[in-house]
Write a structure and sequence with these properties.
The protein is α+β, with helices and mostly antiparallel strands. The chain has two domains: 222 residues, Sortase, Chain: A; 43 residues. The protein contains six helices and eight strands, in the order H-H-H-E-E-H-E-E-E-E-H-E-E-H. Strand 7 and strand 8 form a beta hairpin. Helix 1 runs antiparallel to helix 6. The longest helix is centred in the first third of the chain and has 46 residues.
Length: 286
């Protein structure tokens, strides 16, 4: 009896310890899976749009961007839990294909990131994906455009922009908006701007005539979050470099979800063991 109890508690202790150690990886991979589903739904919705739908959507986005000439950075993105209800505003209506606030998605191949891009930077958004900073240009490309996309770093539940400090000049990231793929090449990295230095932030995120910029915006140092890390990219031609073969897609899926596959395999194995034990007990009774 004591041996059975000790084996049970040892197994329980092992499972608890494994769960604590594996939680960040499992949670991040679950968020990656969830983001992948959202992106697939977005692509599916876009594929059903007609040419006149695209023309209308692009025209509305350009018209919105023309309503202001300079980006507005008035408060700390990460210092508020709720930036106000933007539903029903003209901003929320633009580029909102499915009505859920997703305006497109972001791909950063070097750090294996694919995130939905939402309207606004509420805490609910930043905990799972990237948010477009309201008050900056929409990420639709074009001269005189500077869009700002923000996400958290260091969350135990999702990596998001955790590895963005690994990007260097010349690396590329991509925006997928409606039926367009927009490529940007990193040309400037500002690693430490005080979070309350709005003059410096405004200067770094300003619109420049004739330029097409997107800045990735997050908190730093890792775990302290007293400053802001800005990674800016300028528009370059997109040559279809993100296209992959079915084999490459399968390998990528394994890399993204290996812990989920492992847990599924362990669960199936455990159920088989329990089932076999029950079968053996019945045979012994007979």
């Amino acid at each position: 009896m004591l041996r059975k109890l000790s084996s049970f508690f040892f197994g329980l202790l092992f499972l608890v310890g494994f769960g604590i150690l594996a939680y960040p990886t499992i949670s991040d991979q679950w968020n990656t899976y969830r983001q992948s589903k959202l992106i697939s739904q977005y692509d599916s919705a876009v594929s059903q749009m007609k040419e006149e739908d695209f023309e209308e959507a692009w025209a509305a986005a350009r018209a919105y961007n023309q309503t202001f000439s300079q980006n507005s950075i008035l408060t700390d993105i990460f210092g508020i839990e709720d930036s106000g209800d933007i539903r029903g505003t003209e901003y929320f209506k633009v580029l909102n294909v499915m009505g859920d606030g997703i305006m497109g998605y972001l791909t950063i191949p070097k750090i294996n990131v694919r995130l939905s891009v939402y309207h606004g930077t509420d805490e609910e958004v930043l905990n799972t994906g990237a948010g477009h900073l309201n008050g900056t240009k929409l990420p639709i490309g074009g001269e005189g455009n500077h869009s700002v996309l923000s996400a958290h770093r260091g969350l135990p539940s999702a990596k998001l922009f955790t590895d963005i400090d690994q990007l260097g000049k010349g690396d590329r990231f991509y925006l997928h908006i409606l039926n367009e793929d927009l490529a940007y090449e990193v040309d400037r990295i500002l690693p430490m701007i005080e979070k309350d230095d709005f003059d410096a932030l405004g200067e770094a995120l300003k619109i420049e005539e004739g330029e097409d910029y997107v800045t990735l915006f997050t908190c730093t140092p890792y775990g302290v979050n007293s400053h802001r890390l800005l990674v800016r990219g300028h528009r370059v031609p997109y040559d279809g470099e993100l296209e992959s073969t079915p084999v490459e897609s399968m390998v990528q899926a394994i890399q993204n979800y290996y812990m989920l596959y492992l847990l599924f395999g362990l669960g199936v194995t455990l159920l088989l063991i329990l089932w076999m034990r029950q079968v053996m007990k019945r045979k012994n009774r007979q």
